[in-house]
Design a protein that fits this description.
The structure is a single chain. A hairpin with a 5-residue loop joins strand 2 and strand 3. A 5-stranded mixed barrel has the order 1-3-4-6-5. It has a single domain (6-110, 120-148), classed as Beta Barrel (OB fold (Dihydrolipoamide Acetyltransferase, E2P)), CATH 2.40.50. The protein is mainly beta. The longest helix is centred in the middle third of the chain and has 10 residues, at 58-67. It contains 1 helix and 6 strands; from the N terminus they run ββββαββ.
Length: 161
């Protein structure tokens, strides 16, 4: 049996980078930071930050491009994928990315309001705006994850998903 599964909960280090392929497929690239805390033998609290590149495709990329912002918490489920490319200087490079297959939005960055209209980067979203005189659609409640409330180390058995 083979398993290639990645689960990340962290904060975005920049706004999503949304693009469209030549075939019309939408793709978004996210940059996420995750922190790991532990206490060493001398009793000193240690911290290590890892940075991850996440690629989302299709409808998931459109949602990420519309709702995610720098500093926001996010849950990503996906798989590792390594690809090769030729850099501008002609050298061969390899990069390992997480191809996201599932996503949940978390709480917004401190200082940014969670109210108001989401960013609209998808051109097709303009056609879904309500017509004059019609009732506004009900706003969907999106569950959030708040890592700021956690003061101690997070135990994997306490994670509800």
């Amino acid at each position: 049996m083979n398993v290639n599964k990645v689960v990340l909960v962290g904060r975005l280090t920049r706004d999503p980078d949304m693009r469209t392929t030549t075939s019309g497929q939408s793709v978004v690239t996210l940059s996420m930071a995750t922190n790991n805390f532990w206490t060493d033998k001398s009793g000193t609290r240690q911290e290590r930050t890892e940075f991850h590149t996440i690629v989302l495709w299709g409808r998931l990329s459109e949602i990420a491009g519309q709702y995610l912002t720098k500093g926001q918490e996010c849950y990503i489920e996906g798989r590792l994928q390594t690809r090769e490319y030729t850099a501008k200087d002609g050298t061969q490079r390899k990069v390992t990315e997480i191809v996201g297959e599932n996503m949940q939005l978390g709480s917004r960055a401190q200082g940014s309001s969670g109210q108001g209209a989401p960013r609209n980067t998808a051109p097709a979203a303009a056609s879904t705006a309500p017509k004059k005189g019609s009732p506004a659609p009900a706003e969907e409640e999106i569950p959030t994850i708040n890592l700021d409330d956690e003061r101690e180390e997070i135990k994997i058995e306490d994670v509800p998903f």
